Amino acid sequence: MTDPTMLVNASHPLPPGWVPDDLVDLWVQKPRHFLLPGRREFLARVAFEAANALFAEAETAGFDDFDVRSGYRDAERQAALYAANPNPGMVAKPGQSEHQTGLALDVGIWRGPFLSANNESHRAWVYEHCWEHGLIVRYPAGKESVTGVPAEPWHLRYVGRDVAAEIRERGWVLEEWHEARRPTA
Ligand SMILES: [Zn+2]
User: Fold this and answer.
1) Residues 107, 68 contacting (CB under 8 angstroms)
2) From the CA of 104, how far away is ligand 1's center (Å)?
3) In what helix (H) or strand (E) does residue 139 lie, and over which residues does it extend?
4) Which of 20, 23, 74, 184 is the most exposed place for a label (fewest CB within 10 A)?
5) Distance from Cα 183 to the centre of ligand 1, integer Å
6) Ligand 1 centre distance from Cα of residue 69 (Å)
7) For 144-154, how does the pLDDT look when each residue is reduced to its tens digit (9 = 90+)?
8) How far is the CA of 177 from the centre of ligand 1 (A)?
9) How far apart are CA 42 and CA 45, in angstroms?
10) How far does the centroid of ligand 1 lie from the alpha carbon of residue 91, in Å?
11) What's residue 185's pLDDT?
12) Handedness of CA 30, 24, 149, 110 (dihedral sign)
């Protein structure tokens, strides 16, 4: 099974040919408490269950219009995205995107923008509750020098509840959580 704490970034690429083994097709998952774009999307089962629980809670809080617009990407799709994007650094190279793990999801407002400070009440609600379901804001503003990625307020990553709680409490990103666990010589 995929390790939910696995680190994927420019200096920790996935091995060539690596694929997750527990993907679910979001269109066939019921009940499903979020909306979907008009194409098939997949997530690792743990990430789906976490997102579904988060957005079920969101519905009861009055936010019933979240969508999951990008989940799992295979290496070919990541390569196509990378090739199509003219801005270096805005799209991860194949093997360096955690979308290839199935543990990451990009969240938006139905038929509208990605989750950001422009939809502050939605964003604030997600940020307050996502960690309770094991999800973290993976690329927060102010941590660009650690993650190597420009802030992406919409990109959530499943790491499991205990790790998410620790990361939130310490104000870390996933790189810092891994760094703290490295044995010191
Ligand atoms: Zn993303």
Assistant:
1) yes
2) 6
3) strand 135-139
4) 184
5) 30
6) 9
7) 999 999 999 99
8) 20
9) 9
10) 9
11) 67
12) negative
Q: Where are the alpha helices (DSSP H) in 42-150?
A: 45-60, 75-84, 120-129, 144-147
pLDDT tier, 45 (very low <50, low <70, confident <90, very high otherwise): very high
Show the 3-state SS of 7-33: CCECCECCCCCCCCCCEEEHHHCCCCC
Cβ neighbour number for residue 44 with a 10 Å cutoff: 24
Q: What pLDDT, on a 0 to 100 scale, did the predictor assign at position 184?
A: 79
**What percent of the chain is predicted at pLDDT more than 70?**
99
Beta-bridged to residue 114, according to DSSP, are 108
Q: Which domains does the chain have, with CATH numbers?
A: 23-181 (3.30.1380.10)
d(CA 36, CA 66): 9
Residues with catalytic function? 152
On average, the pLDDT of the chain sits at 95
**pLDDT tens-digit readout, 68-122:** 999 999 999 999 999 998 787 778 999 999 999 999 999 999 988 999 999 999 9
Amino acid in the structure at residue 161: R
CA of 95 to the centre of ligand 1 (A): 14
Tokens 């020098």 appear where?
A: 145
Closest CA to 42 of 30, 29, 33: 29
